[in-house]
Design a protein that fits this description.
alpha+beta; five-stranded mixed beta sheet; 2 helices; 5 strands; 28% helix
């Protein structure tokens, strides 16, 4: 996260509650949580998150959401 400019700009903290419960927090871009699930396929999950920030958040297409869920394959699920 620290070595990637997009993620570094948007991720402020991480919380590990167990091997299948990792949550990232963003306060800079829109104050939301990011549910990663486990560490499996973490590179894919972070890549989807980067695309989401570049294509949606940075363009202003979506502003009002409380969480991003990356636990599901090939999906980025938003919750209000």
């Amino acid at each position: 996260i620290v070595s990637d400019p997009v993620l570094k700009e948007n991720i402020d903290a991480a919380q590990v509650n167990g091997p299948d419960d990792l949550i990232l927090y963003s306060g800079k871009s829109c104050a939301h949580s990011i549910k990663m699930g486990g560490f499996d396929k973490w590179e894919d999950k972070l890549e989807r998150l980067k695309v989401f920030y570049k294509e949606v958040v940075d363009t202003g297409k979506r502003k009002n959401f409380k969480s991003v869920d990356l636990r599901f394959e090939n999906q980025v699920v938003l919750r209000k």
